[in-house]
């Protein structure tokens, strides 16, 4: 019988879905690019959540977006607490997820390596 998801993983998926909706409707980040919540890792006691975000678009705005998320963290947590039916809402720790940019860079390098020698002219 397959092992079911742990409670922290189920709550993490729920928080990821809700935060994506909250951020897209509450924060005005449209001028800085498209922000995506890629993952949420919860501590075993459900008191702290690492929220991994990616920014599609201009990468020069990463610091500005992360600072805005840091400044709005308490407000986002408050809205999240109103949407979730939990005893306590975890503290949100936002982190930039570099895996998408790293994957794009690797894909580009693979494309260059697989190019025909005649096409390099």
Element order: H for helix, E for strand = HEEHHEH
Major beta sheet, strand line-up: 1-2-3
Estimated radius of gyration: 18 Å
Uncertain ranges: none
Text of the CATH class: Alpha Beta
CATH superfamily: K homology (KH) domain
Question: How many separate helices?
Answer: 4
Helix content: 40-55%
What is the mean pLDDT?
84
Biggest sheet, open or closed, and with what strands and sense? 3 strands, mixed
- Strand portion: 15-25%
Terminal-residue CA separation: 57 Å
Work out the count of structural domains: 1
Structural features, described:
The chain contains four helices and three strands. The chain is an alpha+beta fold and 121 residues long. It has a single domain (7-120), classed as K homology (KH) domain (GMP Synthetase, Chain A, domain 3, 2-Layer Sandwich). The protein has a three-stranded mixed sheet with strand order 1-2-3. α1 (7-26) crosses α3 (73-83). It is globular, with a radius of gyration of 18 Å. The N and C termini lie far apart (57 Å). The mean pLDDT is 84.
Features:
single chain, 121 residues, alpha+beta, 4 helices
Topology:
Layout: H1 7-26, E1 34-42, E2 48-56, H2 62-71, H3 73-83, E3 91-96, H4 99-113
Parallel strand pairs: 2-3
Antiparallel strand pairs: 1-2
Helix pairs in contact: 1-3
Summed up:
With 121 residues, the protein is an alpha+beta fold. It has 4 helices and 3 strands.
């Amino acid at each position: 019988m397959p092992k079911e998801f742990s409670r922290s993983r189920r709550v993490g998926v729920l928080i990821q879905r809700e935060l994506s909706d909250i951020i897209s409707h509450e924060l005005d980040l449209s001028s800085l690019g498209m922000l995506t919540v890629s993952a949420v890792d919860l501590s075993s006691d459900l008191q702290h959540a690492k929220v991994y975000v990616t920014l599609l678009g201009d990468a020069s705005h990463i610091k500005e977006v992360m600072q805005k998320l840091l400044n709005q963290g308490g407000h986002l947590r408050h809205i999240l607490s109103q949407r979730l039916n939990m005893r306590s809402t975890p503290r949100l720790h936002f982190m930039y997820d570099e895996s998408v940019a790293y994957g794009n860079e690797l894909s580009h390098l693979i494309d260059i390596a697989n190019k025909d020698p005649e096409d390099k002219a």
